[in-house]
Structure formats: structure tokens, C-alpha cells
């Protein structure tokens, strides 16, 4: 059990916390805030970048494990690798996190709340992650109440490049990946694949039978530049997963249940630039399909399953009449589909959503950047939702100090399941709505070798959808409030040493007025988390590093009667360059064998070691 009440915020920032990136301020371009490339000094919102070097150094298998050391993030996982995992940003529901891969929205329309299951998302094909914290529905539409997780695969290299790695470790785990990319004249592209298998652990905390997992992920992209002004982008991503899991009907216990997933993601976009880049257009079609089948016994026909499809058309225009002004505007049409079979019944539902938005980006005086926008979404079921957003970033000293202010509104459309399920659906549901405020300051020191960042935030959410035990249907019965502080320290005292630290305090509570829950902490959202990471590159080719993450107490249920004790986890890692192109690497996770849980009655990994080899050409 961890107690932080006697530890000051400043002491935590200086002594122990970690952010999830090695070079947070040393990577200056982001795209998630406005949907176009921007310098960080122009953005008033809180964004964390996890870059390719960090992903490689950390040697993490799960994207969740990288996100867990990001300020403002809380996560839960129901057992072995591959099991259901959710991400909460600033105390929001896990279903209120918008997730993108290579520009494609991948939240599952067949999920109960349209959430995304991070359990099957491994790091094999991912080269960059941007995490935007705070409501931002003006740019991203439904579900961006807590924030946005934007994942990207690697852009093609100039010329030709190839990379491959393979590792083996605890519980007969095999993890291998490879990718090729290159550019030839007007054509550039790449292709990659990753394979993972493990015997796993028992997902049930009291179980003895291991729950195995297999995952194959593939990605490809192609860009054709027909001219300096016109280009075509094609991107694809695929995941096939097979998971043994322990029954969740009641307390989890050893069982023979199996879940299989096929996830298809596609993007086709046409880009046009006119008037020396003063006017650019992007028209794209994106497609995502999740197919989930569940088996009580392996080798039999599926007992039940879900299919969720989301087809989107997007148009975005950017007008830049001057170097200090841009107008971003767009139209989107989205058609989520939901199909279910099992237990003697079938169901199929769909909706149509049309959206328009406009965003102005201005720099009226040196050092001041202002952004403001509005969006309107029209849903075929519940009607319209209008959201506003504005933020500002001011630097009096050419980026050494940045003062940030942000206001954002978010909304989340009811899921097709919540609207139309034959047992618990409610066609009268209204969208969830949020208002989010934050203020922060970033201070760069020692010629950019140190950065201190502190952000305070507040979010109020109304009409939150929950299951109503009085009517046995879903209803807009919840109100919640989340407030807190995020702090980050990044140091590079010498070129060979990177140290990052983060701390976040999140007070997320029920404000529904229901006697059993009002004022209680929202489940699985610890108030405090702190993390520290350091990596050192030795002169003779050895690189060593360590990460310590500490998470405070939380509760597993809304009534706050089931406690999850806080925990501390340490991991160490090393790599050694055999040649300029080949290196060996290894790590030990949960070094001290901490016994902990992120979901009640579900197991977690003890001490585990892995080793492998990487090659670059």
C-alpha cells in the first residue's frame, strides 16, 4: 500500500516520477492537437510524445505498458497478455478515450460503449505515439472526452531500410518482428509484420492453468507523389489474435474459454496543394472492422460473437492566407455498424453521423499562438451535438518558457449496443458531454537539456451513460468530476544520459446524486501515480536502463467497497551493440516480484526475463 500524503509535488518531480518518453520536448512537431502538423510552441493543450527511440529502449511488448508511465494515464488489464485492457485519461471512462492508428479511428462499434480494447495492441509495428490529454471533440468528434491516443507506424526511409528482431523469455514467450521500407523517385512505401506467442499466466488470480496467447500484426503503406502538389496515401493494418481466458461470468476461475479477433484497418487518401501550399486539401476514406468470436470450448463452433464496422469519409481543407494564420475546416460522414449472434438470437444495427468543423490558428504577436474552433455532429438517432474549443500558448522568450491555457468540450455518442440491445437498450439516450479546463507551464533550462512541465486540469461530465438497475436499461444517469495535477521532468545532463520523471494526481469522483455512489471515487482510477526512468549509453556499445512505477490505492467498484492496494514495479534493461548493425538486448520486468492487481481477482505477471537480438540494414 502506497501513501503519498506527506510527499510534496515538487519533491516527487525532483526525485522519482517518469514520463513515458525519452525526448518529450526534443521532438517538436505534433499532429494530434489540430489534425495538422504544428510546433509544440503553438499548442495550448497537454501532449505527450512516445517516440521510436523510447519504444526501442524500453523493450515493452504491450502499448499499455508504455502508456502506463505517461502522466494522467491509468490502466487496467484482466490477466495475461492479450486480455482485455483499458486506458483512462485524467480519470475519464475507458470508453471515453479516442484511439487512432495511422489516422484511422479504431474504437469498436460493436463494444458495449464503443471503447477500444488495448489488450491486442502490441508495440511490434508502432513507431510513435501521441497522447493528448483533455477533451477535444472539435477536431476528433465523438469519444474524445478524456483525450486521444494517436498511434503511428514508421514512415518509409529514404533509399532502402530493413529491420528485424527476435526475442525469447518467460513462459515460453516468442516475439519476432521485421519491416522493410524505401523510396524510389515519386514512390515510397513499407511493409512490416510482427508475431507474438506465449503460454502466459493464469488470468484468474486463484487459477493454476496458464492462459496462452498468439498475435500476428501486419502493416503496409504506399505513397505516390504524382506531382509536387498531388499525392496518394494508402495505409493498412491488420491484427489476428487468439486468446485463452478465464470465465468472467462471476468471479474469474480456470476455464477453457477462447476469444479470437480479426481487426482490419484501411486508409486511402488524396492530398492536393495549391497556391504554393497556401491551400491544401485532403480527401480520405477509412475503414475499420472488428470481428470477435468467443468459444466455451476450443475446437468447436463459436458460441457468440460480435462484428463492428466503421466506414468514414473525411474531407479536410487548410487555408493559410499568411504565415501567422491558418483556417482548418472539414466535413466527415461516419457509418458505424454492429452485428451480434449467439444464445439463440441475432441483432444488427447501424447509424449515420454527419459532421462539420472549423478551426482557426492565429499568431497575432510574436510568441502568442491562439486556436479556437467549433464542430457540429448530426446523429441519425439522437440529433445534433455542438462542441467548442479554444487554447493559447504564450512564450515570452522564444520557446524557453511556454504558458498554456486550454478549454475543450467533448461528447460521446451512445453506442449502438446501448441504443438498441433487445434487453437493455434505450433509444432515448442522449450523448455524454464534458467541459475540460487546464492551465500549464513548460520551462526549458540549460540550453534545452532540462524541461519542467506542470499542468492543472478540471473536467465535468454530464449525461454519462450507465446501466440503470431501476429500469434494467442504460440511461443518462451519471455526472462525474475529475481534477488534478500532472508534472513532468526531462533531463539530458550529458548526451549519453536520459532521465524522465512524471507525477499525476487525479481526483475523479461520482457526482450523480445517487446515495450509494455520490462522492465516491471512480473505480480503477488511483489518485496518485509516480514513475522514474533512466537510460545511459556507455562508450563501448552498452546501453543500460531502469524504470520504476508506483501507483496508489484505488477501488474496483463504484461503491468503493472493494479495494485495490497500491503497488510499485521496477524493471531493468540492457542492450549491447555487437556490430554497427546488430545488437543483443534483454530485460527483467517486475524485478522484485511485486504481487499486485489492476482488476480485482485477476492475475498479473511476477518477475519475468526476456532476451533477444536486433538487426538493422
From TrEMBL:
A GO biological process held by the record: monoatomic ion transport
Signal peptide annotation: 1-20
Protein name per Swiss-Prot or TrEMBL: TonB-dependent receptor
Localisation per UniProt entry: Cell outer membrane
A matching Pfam family: TonB_dep_Rec_b-barrel
Similarity annotation: Belongs to the TonB-dependent receptor family.
Gene3D superfamilies, alphabetized: TonB-dependent receptor, beta-barrel domain, TonB-dependent receptor, plug domain
tRNA processing among keywords: no
Keywords: Cell outer membrane, Ion transport, Membrane, Receptor, Signal, TonB box, Transmembrane, Transmembrane beta strand, Transport
Protein source organism: Sphingopyxis bauzanensis
GO CC entries: cell outer membrane
Coiled-coil parts of chain: none
Membrane topology: Multi-pass membrane protein
TonB-dependent receptor plug domain span: 41-148
PROSITE patterns named in the record: TONB_DEPENDENT_REC_3
Amino acid at each position: 500500500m502506497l501513501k503519498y500524503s506527506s510527499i510534496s509535488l515538487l519533491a516527487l518531480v525532483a526525485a522519482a516520477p517518469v514520463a513515458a518518453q525519452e525526448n518529450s520536448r526534443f521532438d517538436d512537431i505534433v499532429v494530434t492537437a489540430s489534425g495538422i502538423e504544428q510546433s509544440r510552441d503553438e499548442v495550448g493543450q497537454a501532449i505527450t510524445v512516445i517516440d521510436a527511440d523510447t519504444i526501442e529502449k524500453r523493450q515493452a511488448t504491450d502499448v499499455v505498458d508504455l502508456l502506463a508511465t505517461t502522466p494522467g494515464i491509468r490502466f487496467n488489464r484482466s490477466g495475461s497478455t492479450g486480455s482485455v485492457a483499458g486506458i483512462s485519461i485524467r480519470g475519464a471512462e475507458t470508453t471515453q478515450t479516442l484511439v487512432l492508428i495511422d489516422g484511422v479511428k479504431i474504437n469498436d462499434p460493436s463494444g458495449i460503449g464503443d471503447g477500444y480494447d488495448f489488450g491486442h495492441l502490441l508495440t511490434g509495428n508502432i513507431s510513435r505515439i501521441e497522447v493528448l490529454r483533455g477533451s477535444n471533440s472539435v477536431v476528433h468528434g465523438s469519444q474524445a472526452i478524456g483525450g486521444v491516443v494517436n498511434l503511428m507506424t514508421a514512415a518509409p526511409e529514404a533509399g532502402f531500410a530493413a529491420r528485424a528482431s527476435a526475442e525469447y523469455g518467460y513462459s515460453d514467450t516468442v516475439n519476432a518482428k521485421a519491416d522493410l521500407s524505401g523510396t524510389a523517385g515519386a514512390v515510397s512505401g513499407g511493409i512490416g509484420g510482427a508475431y507474438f506467442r506465449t503460454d502466459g499466466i493464469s488470468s484468474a488470480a486463484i487459477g493454476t492453468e496458464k492462459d496462452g496467447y498468439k498475435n500476428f500484426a501486419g502493416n503496409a503503406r504506399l505513397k505516390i507523389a504524382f506531382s509536387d502538389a498531388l499525392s496518394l496515401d494508402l495505409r493498412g493494418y491488420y491484427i489476428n489474435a487468439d486468446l485463452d481466458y478465464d470465465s468472467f461470468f462471476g468471479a474469474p476461475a480456470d476455464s477453457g474459454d477462447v476469444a479470437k479477433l480479426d481487426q482490419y484497418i484501411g486508409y486511402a487518401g488524396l492530398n492536393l496543394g495549391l497556391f504554393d501550399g497556401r491551400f491544401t486539401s485532403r480527401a480520405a476514406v477509412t475503414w475499420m472492422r472488428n470481428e470477435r468470436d468467443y468459444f466455451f470450448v476450443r475446437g468447436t463452433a463459436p458460441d457468440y460473437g460480435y462484428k463492428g464496422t466503421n466506414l468514414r469519409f473525411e474531407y479536410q481543407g487548410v487555408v493559410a492566407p499568411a504565415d501567422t494564420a491558418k483556417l482548418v475546416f472539414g466535413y466527415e460522414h461516419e457509418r458505424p455498424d454492429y452485428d451480434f449472434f449467439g444464445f439463440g438470437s441475432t441483432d444488427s444495427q447501424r447509424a449515420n453521423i454527419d459532421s462539420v468543423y472549423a478551426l482557426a490558428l492565429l499568431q497575432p504577436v510574436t510568441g502568442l499562438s491562439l486556436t479556437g474552433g467549433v464542430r457540429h455532429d448530426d446523429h441519425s438517432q439522437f440529433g445534433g451535438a455542438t462542441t467548442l474549443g479554444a487554447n493559447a500558448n504564450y512564450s515570452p522568450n522564444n520557446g524557453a518558457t511556454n504558458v498554456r491555457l486550454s478549454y475543450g468540450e467533448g461528447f460521446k455518442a451512445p453506442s449502438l449496443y446501448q441504443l438498441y440491445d433487445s434487453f437493455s437498450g434505450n433509444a432515448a439516450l442522449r450523448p455524454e458531454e464534458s467541459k475540460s479546463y487546464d492551465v500549464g507551464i513548460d520551462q526549458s533550462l540549460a540550453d534545452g537539456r532540462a524541461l519542467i512541465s506542470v499542468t492543472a486540469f478540471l473536467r465535468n461530465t454530464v449525461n454519462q451513460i450507465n446501466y440503470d438497475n431501476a429500469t434494467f436499461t442504460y440511461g443518462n444517469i451519471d455526472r462525474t468530476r475529475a481534477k488534478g495535477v500532472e508534472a513532468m521532468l526531462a533531463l539530458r545532463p550529458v548526451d549519453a544520459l536520459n532521465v524522465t520523471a512524471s507525477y499525476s494526481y487525479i481526483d475523479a469522483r461520482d457526482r450523480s446524486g445517487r446515495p450509494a455512489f455520490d462522492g465516491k471515487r471512480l473505480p480503477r482510477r488511483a489518485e496518485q501515480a509516480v514513475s522514474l526512468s533512466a537510460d545511459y549509453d556507455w562508450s563501448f556499445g552498452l546501453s543500460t536502463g531502469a524504470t520504476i512505477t508506483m501507483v496508489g490505492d484505488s477501488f474496483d467498484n463504484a461503491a468503493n467497497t472493494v479495494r485495490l492496494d497500491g503497488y510499485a514495479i521496477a524493471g531493468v534493461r540492457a542492450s549491447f551493440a555487437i556490430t554497427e548493425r546488430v545488437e543483443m538486448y534483454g530485460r527483467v520486468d517486475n524485478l522484485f516480484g511485486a504481487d499486485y492487481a489492476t482488476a480485482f481477482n485477476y492475475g498479473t505477471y511476477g518477475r519475468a526475463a526476456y532476451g533477444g537480438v536486433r538487426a538493422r540494414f
